[in-house]
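REQUEST ID: PR-0412
SUBMITTED BY: lab tech R.K.
PRIORITY: routine
TASK: structure prediction, single protein chain
INPUT:
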Amino acid sequence: MSWSEATGGCWPGIRPGTGAHEQEMLGVLLAGARDGQRRPGFAESADLIWGALRIRVRPGREGSGDPGWREALAVFSVVMPLLLLLETVVSLLLFLFRAVELFRAVE
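STATUS: complete
OUTPUT:
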């Protein structure tokens, strides 16, 4: 098993051997490598694994979690203002009806 296969499984959306983002990650590692270096050092490996853990643990980011939450939030962002508008209109109408009743009672 190669190093990229071992660490690639830590990253969300990356399946070892598929090439998804794997080439980009390897390119960055190769660009920072010293002449003749064949494997990433401890610091590079630890940084990649730490980054993978931060991405997996961090909630609410695009590309992670259930997409149903995004859909629910979209529906909520439309329905909630409408419910607030309805509540405001009903409160205003109740206030006006009570004001009319009080005005009639005074006459």
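NOTES: The chain has two domains: 1-65, 66-107.
REVIEWED BY: pending
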